[in-house]
Structures are given as C-alpha cells and as structure tokens.
C-alpha cells in the first residue's frame, strides 16, 4: 500500500475515503501529465488518478485539523481571522509536497541505483570472465547487497523464471528504470544479445565507459567545490562575525530593549544554522551519482 507523506489519516482509511474524490482527481490529472511516469520510476504501484485522490483527501483532512488548531491559536493572540487563511496556505503547501513526492523519491532511487551500478557491473564482469552465463551472473548480483541494483536484477530474474524471455525481461527493466546510466547500460546489453556479440566484451566496454564518466564527474565536482567554499566562508563565517561586531557596537550606543537584542542574536544564530544546512545539502546534491555515498 502506498504511503502518502504528511498524511494524518491511517493508510487504509485514506484509501477508502479517496474513492469519493476520484471524479475531481480525474479532472486534475491533465494538469500533471508526467505523474504516472514519475510514480513508475519511484516504484510506487498506484494509478496517477488514485494518487491525486489520495493527496486531495489527505490535504482536506489536514486543512480541517489545522483550521481548528490555528483558529484556537489565533484567538489567543486576538487575531481570530488568521486561522483559516493560514490553514489553507499550509494545506496547499502540504498537497504540493505530496504531489511532488514521487519525483523526489524517483531522484533518490536514481542516486541509489547509480551509486551501486559500477559495483554490480564489475560483479557481472567477473562472473562472465569465469565462464558463467549472463543469466547466472544476474542471479548472483541479485543475491548480493547492492541495494536498488540487486532489487532490479531480482525482478528481472523472477520474470525470466516465470517464462519471460531474457531480452524481454531486460527491456522491461530498462523501460521502468529512472536512471539514465542504468537504462543505457541495459540497452547496450540488449543490443549485444540481439546482434550475437560477446556479452563479456560488451559489459567490459560499458564498465570502461562508466569509469571514464565517473572520473569526469569527480573532476567537475572538484571544480565546483571552490566557489562553494567561498560561499560558505562568506555566509557562515565572515557575515556572522561582522554581524556580531555590528550588533555589539550598535547596542553600546543605542539603548535597545533586552528582548530585542536577544531576538537579533537568536536570528543571527538561526541564519548561521540555515547556511550550514543549505551548504551541506548543496554538497550532497552535487556529489557525483556514480561515486556513491
């Protein structure tokens, strides 16, 4: 069963209630033409219309809960009309994040697949060089601890064991895979099988090309670190230090309230923490996908 992020309803109840908004989700489906592809690539076995219905149902329930909580809070601060608008804005943000969740999950799958892709191909190369067939090599890789790569080969091996031809099973894996490197690898293997070429030579060539691509990614990553380091120095060290000095000087000449001074220093601390988190996220995002974690 698909789990919707930020949903306050139990999954089974959410699935039942979502049936009542299927008509509305069918109308909205045209606004998200790539949602079904993103769901497939994220390995989420649900129809796009049903997923939209789940998101709408979850957001309506979130709006109801937030309306009550925020209205009670607004009454305490003597602004009773703030509750509903804030709840509506928060609900819109939540439903937007829910609709974009398959894209985020697909991106994570791509990173996980490409991180172990070279290791999986090298394992296949070792088996092929020792005289093992491609099918047996895939069985061996499917039993190894290579995360998403082993999972993809497990599905392919299961399909072959169920009677699907090897080429058809590989084509299905390539079509459903979100990683461009993984798809390119599988299509090259399929082309080799169809043309009767030596699979060992084909896989060796793929490994060599991906190794070169990995080196290019590392060099590009290294060239990007210098401006990132400068940004970090300015945002997390220079500006906060100057800000502290400026605040100390200002408070020495201007009689500011103690609570205001504390808020300024807390705001400066929050800014530094935000820069640290953002910088760590940027470094992680730019890390070469073929390099792994």
* Integer-rounded radius of gyration: 26 Å
* Count of DSSP-assigned helices: 11
> By helix and strand content, what is the structural category?
mainly alpha
- Give start-end ranges of low-pLDDT stretches: none
Shape: flat
Give the ordered list of helices and strands: HHHHHHHHHHH
Please state the average pLDDT score.
85
Indicate how many domains the architecture comprises. 3
Number of DSSP strand runs: 0
Q: Characterize the largest beta sheet: strand count, sense, and whether it forms a barrel.
A: none
Structural features, described:
By secondary structure, the chain is mainly alpha-helical. The chain has three domains: about 100 residues, no CATH class; about 100 residues; about 80 residues. About 80% of the residues lie in helices and about 0% in strands. α1 crosses α4 and α2 crosses α4. The longest helix has about 55 residues. The protein is flat and about 85 Å long. The model has no long low-confidence stretch (mean pLDDT about 85).
